[in-house]
Write a structure and sequence with these properties.
globular, 9-stranded mixed β-sheet, about 425 residues, binds (2S)-amino(hydroxy)ethanoic acid, binds manganese (II) ion
Length: about 425
Amino acid sequence: MPAPGENLRINSARLWDSLDQMAQIGPGVAGGCNRQTLTDADSEGRHLFARWCADAGLTMGVDTMGNMFATRPGTDPAALPVYMGSHLDTQPTGGRYDGVLGVLGALEVVRTMNDLGVKTRHPIVVTNWTNEEGARFAPAMLASGVFAGIHSQDYAYARRDTEGKVFGEELARIGWVGDEVVGARKMHAMLELHIEQGPILEAEGKTIGVVTHGQGLWWLEITLTGKDAHTGSTPMNMRVNAGLGMARITERVHQIAMSHQPNAVGAVGQVKVFPNSRNVIPGKVVFTVDIRSPEQAKLDAMKAEVMRAAHAVAKELGLGCEIEDVGHFDPVTFDPGLVKIVRQSAEKLGYSHMDIVSGAGHDACWINRVAPTVMVMCPCVDGLSHNEAEEISPEWAAAGTDVLLHAVLEVAEVVG
Ligand code: HGY
Ligand code: MN
Ligand code: MN
C-alpha cells in the first residue's frame, strides 16, 4: 500500500457519534459530564469503550491500576507497540471532550485503519488511563504516574476521596483491577490527542497545536487549624479564624502568580471548611494550592513563596499550618522527533498549526519519562474546559484525529 496520502481522513461522523454516545454516560446537569474516576459511571464508560474495542477486533489488556490497553496487531510481533490514548474520567462538572477525544480519537484511527485494511509493522495500542483528573483521588495523572514509576502502587491504592473512600477498594468494587503488572508494558512511542483547554489556538486561528512542552505543576494541600467559636458572641480579638487564613493565603497565591508573569498561574480550587456551619468561626480549613509554570525556576520560586506566605499568615493569626505536597511534576519537553512528525502531518493535511506549550497536565507528561511521547491539540471554544459548557467543533475533532492518524501511521510504519 502506498504511504497514506494527504487525502486519508478519519470518519468524522462516526467519531462525533461515539463522543456523543460516551457523553450520555455519567451526564452532568448542564450538558457536560460527571463521570468521575472509579464511580459506576466510570465503569459503564469503560465497558462501552471495551465493547467498541472488541468490535474493532482489538485485544484488551488491563493492568492492576485499571489502565486499559486495546491492541491491534502489527506485522512484526517483535516490534514495540505504538500507544495512543488519554482518559475517560471527567471532572465533577466536566466537559464531553477533555480526555475523551484522545481515547475515542485513537479508537477512530484504528477503525479507519480497519476500513482501509492498513497494516503497520508496529502493533498499535489504544489506551484509557485511570484517574487522570485527580479530582476525586489526588494527585492528577495517578495511574500513568504509577505506570511511569513516579508513584508506588501502594501509594496510589491508599489515596482517599473526600468521603474517605479508598482508591484500591473502589477500583476493586467496580471490577476493573486487571491482571497485568502496571508498568511492565514497553512502548515504541506514545501519542496523546487532547483539546487545548486554553484560548491560544482559537485566538490565533490555528486548527492544530503541535505540543512541544508541558508546564510543570505543584499541588500543595494546606491545613490551617484555629478554634471553632460562635460568630456572634466571640469578640474579634479573641478569634482564631482558619477561614480568614485561607482567604489571605488564596489572595497571596494570586499575587505570587501575577508577580511571575508571563508563564505563571496560581489558584485555589478545592476548599474544605470545618465545621462549615453558618454561625461557627471555622476552626479548620483544608485547601489545595495549584501553581504552574513552563519555567522550572519560576515554578520552584512560586512554591517557596507560597509556603513562606502560608506560614507567615498562619503566624499572624495564631493558626496551626501544615503543608503537604499532593501533586508535582516538572516542566516537560516532548520528543523532538515525534514533534516533527506531528508538525509534518498537519502540514501534509493542510491544517493550520502552531507550536504550543500545554497549560494542563496530561498522562503524556508522565509517559514521557518512559517512552518517546508527543501530544496533538485541537482548539476549544473560548478556551473553556473543566466546565460543562466545554465545546469543540466536529471539524476540530476530525482535524486533530486526522493528524493523529497520519502521525501514528508514520511512527508505526505502514507496510504492504
Ligand atoms: O490538572 C490538570 O491539568 C489536568 O486537567 N488533570
Ligand atoms: Mn484531560
Ligand atoms: Mn481535565
